[in-house]
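One example copied in:
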Amino acid sequence: MRVVRLLLAVVAVALLVLAATPWVDRVEPSWLPAVQALGKVWIAAAVVGIVASLVTRAWFACGTNLVAIAVALVTIVNVSNRPDCDAGDGRLAVMALNAYYGDADVAQLAAAVQRHDIDVLVMPEATEPMIAKLAATEAGRRFTHRSGQTPESRDTEGTVILSRYPATRVDVPAGEAEIFQQPAMSVDVGGTPVLVRGVHPKPPVDDWLQDWRTGLMELGQWQRANRGRPLVMAGDFNASSAHAPFRDAKRGMYDTAGWWPTSTWPLDRAYPPFADIDHVLVRGLSVKGSGTEDIDGTDHRAVWADLRICSR
């Protein structure tokens, strides 16, 4: 029994170390961002460890597992920066979907747009053929304004903002946003201009780790430079609150996913999604509702938020 308790203690300490990795602001070693994103997995493992510890009376292991859960929860539970304002009449429903090289099922996407009465649709990895298919549907015909052109063939670099409200293109600073399109538009919601930014920084893979971090930091600098007006940043951030660069990018903004964000990636594996990397972040807007949608043809869940212009 002593050996079992020792093994449980070693595993618990390892889980505590893994759960604490989100507090390490580094891009090396290359596996670190992936490990940081596994907070929910470490919590599940710690719960199993607590049960085993109670059965074997391994009190040190039990306590260590409890600490590991608490440490992981700090970067998972979303309780900060919730908008403190009264909801006005101006409505803005936003949906973001990584269209996966333009392969996302357009019929299912159109149905989701209709179901949630979406006003602004942000699509990283969109292509012109996919946008044309969407425009041919009843749901797609509502979008009368768009941010710009996307690739004609299957590609990761196209991001489009589609709006049913009058909208004008807003220039964004040069930087990582020039590599993967990340356009911005000023959307007129009943006379109130709302700044909307489509987001798709590079993913945290070996060759792009520093670019991934730089891209998220640039998003943080951009949104803080645009204080004083209603703001939405939506899309595939390739990061969650487990990553320090994302926490900087969203500083002062609210993640509409709620207190326990739904995992949105990867959707097409034998195991369930484990990372919440798709977000609708807001500032100066009241959140009436939010959720996710599963769309065939892509490995990301769509995320949506029903927003209101603040009346004060």
Observations:
- The chain has two domains: 2-74, 87-310.
- Residues 2-19 form the longest helix (18 residues).
- The mean pLDDT is 94.
